[in-house]
Design brief:
Blueprint (H helix, E strand, L loop, with lengths): L4 E6 L3 H16 L3 E2 L8 E6 L4 H20 L4 E5 H7 L2 H5 L5 E3 L7 H9 L4 E3 L22 E5 L1 E2 L10 H5 L3 E2 L2 H13 L4 E5 L7 E4 L2 E4 H9 L6 E5 L8 H9 L6 E3 L7 H6 L6 H14 L4 E8 L6 H14 L3 E6 L7 H5 L6 H26 L3 E9 L6 E5 L5 E5 L8 E9 L3 E6 L1
Parallel strand pairs: 1-2, 1-3, 3-4, 4-5, 5-6, 7-10, 10-13, 14-15, 15-16, 19-21
Antiparallel strand pairs: 8-9, 11-12, 17-18, 17-20, 18-19, 20-21
Helix pairs in contact: 8-9, 12-14
This protein binds 5'-deoxyadenosine and iron/sulfur cluster (SF4).
The site of 5'-deoxyadenosine (5AD) has 12 residues, from strand 15.
């Protein structure tokens, strides 16, 4: 099996993309080579997401294509990784004959052994969750990278048990990674030419690392990473409103290289739905946190996640979501229709009782409102001069560079003598729904 080539396909969140880089590193250490061409691969791994039912359906569909590839090349090994592997475990081997290997999010170190098992003709499964695995010592292979921005995973798991969410069941207990290994990873990336890192966790605000009796919380970690180099930009995701501290906002204000963008999922604008969701804050407490963001960081972008049509959501609750969106004026939002997930608190205790057409209509209203808010947010940027980190040529044309400002908005501008990785000052002249367009000054 050694010297054979692997291909990894990733679905879902940033965390999964980061995990795929850990997997690539473990496989390369194990003597396997990577390929960017699926047709050239001897092993294909699909890193999966379970957060909503349609994420799983997409993977099921993809497995039909894998079946086709395997018919052409019977030696091809197909492995499933990540949350869906964890959720369904050996049941998947019965349902999806095409799979040879199943590995959950905490068992990637075991992949070389699992591959050996597959080689000896058996199907291989490891879905054990761990209370301590953080892959701290593994330096991820930047698998699908632009060479400028990278993810650093700082914690794993989640123990918030939001009623709708499958994550605590598929990613296990919350654990924080050794802070020194995080700073070292940021330093290594900087020396290799990277200029932006995103610190990742399900709930980064509850990061906590204790060494020699000294506690480092998230604000402290962020400060250490910000000190690696002023030319290294730092982002982070995801923040939980119940744990977003003033100390963190003050740290963000002190460092220019900590980007002024906070992703703060609200999920609903109604206190009774928030309580039903087990989110741990009220509408007013959420609004108090966004007011604190605006007062410490006047130019900070705020983005969010919203779920439409959670169990027992009334028209009144839905209107409260719309009014909260207006009140905060989110710059950007990820918006979802509630999807019941097996084994969650909501699936066990509540009825998924908002009819599909009402969920869809409410989601549509939320999306329409957010379009208006994003438009207003972009419009405010016209005439401003912003600092942009150049990431690459624009997808549409080699005559334009594409980068992002501190607020995480994509900015497009005509190519100059600069290179990706450089910072430039760009005057914004106009915008489309998804990008700001300007020129270097
Ligand atoms: N249905 C719909 N959306 C969900 N999310 C999590 N679980 C569900 C679900 N069962 C959304 C939340 C979360 C984001 C990552 O996905 O908004 O913040
Ligand atoms: Fe899921 Fe809530 Fe944990 Fe986010 S904080 S992963 S929504 S349980």
């Amino acid at each position: 099996m050694k010297n054979k080539k692997f291909f990894i396909e990733t679905y879902g969140c940033q965390m999964n993309f980061s995990d795929s880089e850990i997997v690539a590193s473990i496989l390369e250490e194990g003597g396997f080579g990577s390929t960017k061409d699926i047709m050239d691969a001897d092993m294909i791994f699909i890193n999966t997401c379970s957060i909503r039912d349609n994420a799983e359906q997409r993977v099921r569909k993809r497995l039909e294509y894998m079946q086709f590839l395997k018919k052409k090349n019977p030696g091809l090994v197909i492995g499933m990784l990540g949350c869906m592997a964890e959720r369904l475990k050996t049941q998947l081997l019965e349902e999806e004959q095409v799979l040879d290997l199943i590995a959950g999010p905490d068992s990637y170190r075991d992949l070389p052994r699992l591959m050996a098992e597959v080689e000896s003709g058996r199907k291989a499964v490891n879905t054990l969750l761990s209370i301590e695995e953080t892959y701290a010592d593994i330096s991820p292979v930047r698998y699908d990278s632009n060479g400028i921005s990278a993810f650093i995973s700082i914690m794993r798991g989640c123990e918030n048990y939001c009623a709708y969410c499958v994550v605590p069941y598929v990613r296990g207990q919350e654990r924080s990674r050794d802070g020194i290994s995080i700073t070292q990873e940021a330093e290594t990336l900087f020396h290799r030419g990277f200029r932006e890192v995103t610190l990742l966790g399900q709930n980064v605000n509850s990061y906590q690392w204790i060494q020699d009796g000294t506690k480092t919380a998230f604000a402290g970690l962020l400060e250490k990473v910000a000190q690696v180099n002023p030319l290294l930009r730092i982002r982070f995701a995801t923040s939980h409103p119940k744990d977003l501290s003033d100390e963190l906002l003050q740290t963000m204000a002190r460092y220019k290289n900590i980007c002024k963008a906070i992703h703060l999922p609200v999920q609903s604008g109604s206190t009774s739905i928030l309580d039903h969701m087990n989110r741990g804050y009220t509408r007013d407490q959420y609004l108090e946190r966004t007011t604190a963001i605006r007062s410490f960081l006047p130019d900070c972008a705020i983005s969010t996640d919203i779920i439409a049509g959670f169990c027992d959501e009334t028209e009144e609750d839905h209107k409260e979501t719309l009014s909260l969106m207006e009140q905060v004026g989110f710059d950007y939002a990820y918006m979802f229709r509630y999807s019941e997930r097996p084994e969650t608190l909501a699936a066990d205790r509540y009825k998924d009782n908002v009819p599909a057409e009402i969920k869809d209509r409410r989601l549509r209203e939320i999306i329409d409102l957010q379009q208006k808010l994003s438009y207003q947010s972009n419009k405010k940027d016209v005439g401003k001069t912003v600092e942009v980190l150049i990431e690459s040529f624009s997808k549409r044309s080699d005559e334009f560079f594409s980068g992002r400002n501190s607020q995480n908005k994509v900015v497009i501008f005509p190519v100059t003598s600069n290179n990706p990785g450089d910072y430039v000052r760009v005057k914004i002249n106009r915008f489309t729904s998804a990008t700001l367009i300007g020129e270097v000054i």
